[in-house]
Amino acid sequence: MIHPRPSVRVRRAALACLSGGLLLAGASSTPVAADTRPSIRLDNGTLTVDGFLDNRDSGDTRETFVSVDGAENTRGKLTVTFDASDVKDFFPASTTGLVPCDPDGDLIGECDHPHQRLSLNVPAKATAAGRSGRIRITAKVDGKVQDRAEVTVHVKDPGLVFDRAPTGFADVEPGSRLDLPGGFTNYSSYHGYRSVIVDVYFPNGLSPVEEFGNCAYAMSNTGAPRISGQDTSMSCRLTGPISPGGSYDLDLGPVEVGHQAVLLNIRYSARPEKPGAEGPEPLRGRPGKGRPLTFTERAEGATHVRSRSLPVTTSVRTTNQADFAVNHVTLKGKVGDVVDADFFFVNNGPGAVPAVFDSEENNETAPVVQLALPKGITVIKAPENCAEEPDPPTDRNTKGGKEADGPLYRCWQGRMDKSALMTPGSFEHFPFSIRLDRPGRTVNDTADSGYVLIKTELTVDEFDEDKDNNRSHISLDVKAAPRASATSTEQDTASRRATIGGAAAGVALAFAAHIPWRRRGIRSPSIGTDATGGNAAASEGPEPTP
Questions:
Q1: Transmembrane segments in this chain: where (predicted)?
Q2: Is 439 exposed, middle or buried (0-12, 13-18, 19+ CB in 10 A)?
Q3: What is the DSSP string of 291-327?
Q4: Which candidate among 67, 103, 417, 458 keeps its CA 20 to 30 Å from the CA of 225?
């Protein structure tokens, strides 16, 4: 079939359409010039600060990241200026580093990098409580402004704060008394209060001498009469008015230092009372007897005001020290016997110290003792709170540079928490069952002997009066097995005697272990001595005794 040839007019029209389409296609493939003007981007537009460095865990936002988007497309010199002059009165005159790129400390910084961090990890002045201001940020290219942004700075209103107490007392004699001044400030510029609650916590070893009629007293076992060895919490209702911005002082009376105290901390707090529907807020504990605790307006020049380290505490360091010790154990019997060996970690006193031996939140696995058992034995049973170390490290404390070749164990506390004290006589014991595999008798400086060593993550040297008993030996006194001519009945009888002897020696120790932390400890003159006798399968240094 023959197709008719298009006319000249039709061909020209088609060419025109094709040309137009190509032009349109070419136009669409050419990128449209974008707006490359730099713009400031903030992660956070509001920063919150307060006057107390110790309150950094409050969850407030104290920093923001500042970025200039499009900075890579600029052809001139980019600068980012931070101007914090609006919040100058919020911070002490000595404050530095408030804004980046501010070497002269005039609160105006000019940076030549598009990414900066604005961090306000500095305390504000108490007079700035409740106020807000702005930090202005400007992006420029060759001195011409491209964009502006602002960060709002808000100073928290902390309200009522206990802010007056002694920082601490040192070299205090046990049994003496300390005077305890106190005080609080209403940092709010707008809110007053009709009444406030003041709480004071006295740890075990410190106790208030005087009671106040408007206070309640709660002990560690609430409702029981106060006795030595308990914590005391004092909660007092003080009737106002408490004016906005007002500071007030009070006299908490003397506190008595216990005979076992070593290093303790008194804690304080103050807050507005929260009356319930049925009347005043109830105070926890039994009512006190005596005059009411009162307060007066703070005079100029008052001492012990603590506006920079809150919450307030008072440390009490006495002349007391503790004495941590471990016991000398001799593994005694004949080859094939399974003997009981009890190792002790004890505080001989006279001071009581916090039972905190590692940096973990709980204290259930805080290692306190390392055991290097002598060679020639086999551990049949180890306590749950002891674990064998696969590769024993060199013990540089061993005399003559020698070390035990037997198994190495690390043992930790089994029943302590961070809030407890290790009082004199408190101990942790580690009972092992050990089989004697070969005969021999060791002396303390041979490689055949082992050792038991106090080894904690946190050092106990600060409180330990006698460090010589922090390490002791594990010795062997093993006789050969009965002669081959001995009958099986004679061998069985001898084995039972050794085992029974070992069990008898361990009964008192096992009984003592069920009285946690309340027995008298190993006295230092006895550490490292034997107390063998009879057919005891395991002879030890003096155990904690009733």
A1: none
A2: middle
A3: SPP-EEEPPTT-SSB-SSS-S-EEEEEES--B-EEE-
A4: 417
Q: Angle CA(524)–CA(462)–CA(519) in degrees, nearest 5?
A: 40
Instruction: Supply the Cα-derived Rg of the chain in whole angstroms.
Output: 38
Residues, the chain: 546
Check if the beta carbon of residue 156 is closer than 8 Å to that of residue 299.
Answer: no
Give 166-170's long-range contacts (Cβ < 8 A, gap of 24+): 166/304, 166/314, 167/304, 167/306, 167/314, 167/315, 168/314, 168/315, 168/316, 168/317, 169/314, 169/315, 169/316, 169/317, 170/317
State the residue for tokens 């137009």: 20
Q: What is the pTM of this model?
A: 0.62
Look at residue 508 in the predicted model and tell me its pLDDT. Answer: 34
Beta-bridge partner residues of 526: none
Q: What is the pLDDT of residues 266-295, one digit of tens each?
A: 999 999 998 776 778 889 999 999 999 999
Looking at residue 405, what is its pLDDT? 67
* Residue found by looking up tokens 């009070």 in the block: 250
The pLDDT value given to residue 309? 65
- How far lies 451's CA from each of 196, 354, 363, 374, in Å? 58, 26, 25, 8
Interval 228-252 mean pLDDT: 89
Q: What contacts 29, CB < 8 A, 6 or more positions away?
A: none
Please state, in angstroms and rounded to a whole number, the distance separating the CA atoms of residues 164 and 180: 10
Please say if the pLDDT value at position 529 is more than 70: no
**Token pair 């809150």 in the structure block, residue:** 310
**Plot region of 330 (φ>0 → left; ψ -120 to 50 → alpha; else → beta):** beta
- What's the rounded Cα separation, in Å, for the pair 436 and 499? 12
Contacts by 90-94, CB closer than 8 A, 24 or more apart: 90/49, 90/124, 90/125, 90/128, 90/131, 90/133, 90/153, 90/155, 91/122, 91/123, 91/124, 91/125, 91/128, 92/123, 92/125
- The per-residue pLDDT for 418 is 63
Question: Distance (Å, rounded) from C-alpha 65 to C-alpha 69?
Answer: 12
131-141 pLDDT, tens digit per residue, is 899 999 999 99
Number of Cβ within a 10 Å radius of residue 202: 23
DSSP 190-214: S--EEEEEEEEEE-TTEEESS--TT
The answer to whether residues 342 and 369 touch, using CB atoms and an 8 Å cutoff, is no
How confident is the model over 425-447, as a mean pLDDT? 81
d(CA 311, CA 50): 13
